[in-house]
Design a protein that fits this description.
single chain; alpha/beta; Nucleotidyltransferase, domain 5; five-stranded mixed β-sheet; 15 helices; 7 strands; 60% helix; extended
């Protein structure tokens, strides 16, 4: 069977390996042009492609043509040699992947299911429209502020109505284009929200995840669309690391932890952090909020929000994995146990420090006694 790799850039770079050597290279403008080598009437091939949005379509097409397609985990391609010596281009990447698939050393990526792809597409639309509307709202407020007009805080969707009610004709005309744009984007967002709600209603997991405080449809949908299958993770810490919410580690003799890794899907990570902030700021008292406030007192509010986002990822995964719903009593018990364990850890550390100080005092006394014994008589009298 042929061993082939495709690099999906502005153009498609094709490389075929045989015996660890690249024996054929081609460049195509589209997948259609590659039918002469990978079409349905060609011999089957093992094909490697780096995971990306376009990779889903290419995977489905090539699989339909009778080939075995492997998605490559882009976060681990450096293990293969991609990017070494600051040399990275489509030709080199395709060649390295072709040799790796022949050797069977490719780091494989998870293939997203068709249902989750549709959900992620709608979430991508929601994100783009929301960010565009927020940008227009910021520009609108800035233009009015330059005219000495400060608008009250309100939801972005209500901003055009607030401008209409509180601004003079000249200011309303100044920001008319932005007002219209915000209104149109709000209308489009309503349609996207309805489609996301429809897709979410078909996902029992999303309905269960929404039982967690601070987790609404968008957050739950984002989590499901990225994780896809909870069974591919063995424990919650793997999920937390997958979305980039665990501390980076630099260990060389002494363990040193840094800021979070920020690996994985940035949109899901930002949604989890937003959900954490909503829990911290809510008036409702929940075990998750209590736990986060305890962290906030020790480490500050920003660290507490990220820590709570990390814990949320674990809670959501556990609910999905077990097929259960959120139980505040269980989480509260876990939080209490965590605080008790931390208190015991602090007590243990304090006791160890006390014992070390006592031992240091004994050593100092012994050293002083030994020093005095080595002194000649007249020096001994002087020290006394």
């Amino acid at each position: 069977m042929r061993n082939v790799a495709l690099d999906l850039g502005n153009r498609i770079t094709y490389a075929r390996a045989d015996g660890g050597v690249i024996v054929e290279r081609r460049v195509f403008n589209s997948l259609t042009e590659a039918e002469s080598l990978l079409g349905p009437n060609t011999s089957p091939a093992r094909v490697a492609i780096e995971a990306s949005r376009e990779a889903w379509f290419v995977h489905d097409t090539l699989t339909g043509w009778g080939h075995q397609v492997t998605l490559v985990d882009t976060t681990r391609v450096r293990e293969l040699g991609i990017g070494h010596h600051k040399r990275k281009n489509d030709r080199i990447d395709a060649g390295i992947l072709a040799v790796a698939i022949e050797k069977g050393t490719l780091p494989k990526a998870h293939l997203l299911s068709a249902a989750r792809r549709r959900l992620r597409e709608q979430l991508g639309l929601h994100r783009s429209l929301t960010e565009s509307r927020a940008s227009f709202a910021t520009q609108l407020r800035g233009l009015l502020r330059a005219r000495g007009v400060r608008l009250v805080k309100c939801a972005v969707a209500r901003l055009p109505a607030v401008v209409e009610a509180r601004c003079a004709l000249a200011e309303r005309e100044l920001v008319k284009a932005l007002r219209v744009a915000i209104e149109q984007l709000t209308h489009l967002l309503q349609g996207v929200d309805l489609e996301i709600e429809r897709l979410a209603a078909e996902e029992p997991a999303i309905l269960r995840l929404k039982t967690v405080p601070g987790v609404a449809t968008i957050v739950a949908s984002a989590f499901v669309s990225v994780i896809d299958d909870p069974k591919r993770f063995e424990h919650a810490h793997q999920v937390e690391a997958y979305v980039g919410l665990v501390p980076s580690e630099f260990t060389s003799g002494r363990r040193k932890l840094g800021s979070i890794t920020k690996q994985g899907n940035s949109y899901l990570r930002s949604m989890l952090v937003q959900a954490a902030w909503s829990i911290i700021r809510s008036r409702q008292s929940t075990p998750l909020k209590t736990w986060a406030l305890a962290v906030q007192r020790r480490r500050g509010k920003h660290v507490a929000a990220v820590a709570l986002a990390r814990r949320l990822a674990g809670v959501l995964w556990a609910i999905w994995y077990d097929g259960s719903v959120f139980e505040a009593l269980h989480v509260g018990r876990a939080s209490a146990e965590g605080l008790i364990h931390q208190a015991r850890s602090i007590e243990f550390t304090a006791e160890q420090l006390r014992l070390q100080a006592a031992a240091a005092e004994r050593v100092a006394a012994a050293l002083e006694l030994a020093r005095r014994k080595t002194l000649v008589p007249h020096q001994r009298k002087a020290t006394v």
